[in-house]
Amino acid sequence: MSKTSLVLATIVAAMLPLVVQAGPVEGACNRSDRSAANRSLCACVGQVADMTLRGSDQKRAASFFKDPDRAQDVKMSQRDSDDAFWERYKAFGAMAEAYCAG
Hints:
mainly alpha
């Protein structure tokens, strides 16, 4: 193996974990016990989350997979910040449904 090939292989190997790392929503989807969840669907939903939700919103949305009651609490909340998040979350959900529906 040439020196250039070895350097290139080392760079690719170092970057690989960054490329395949799932975001919070995709990871939560993959870990969920939902029967419809599969890697392909979770990857699609994760891509939509990356396009539509900020990092903090993604973490919050990901928590709904583990504790669905938390979503209801946020939806019913009277706080302005929760209302604003819920609007972003609904837009994410609608886009994920349209984009990822098989």
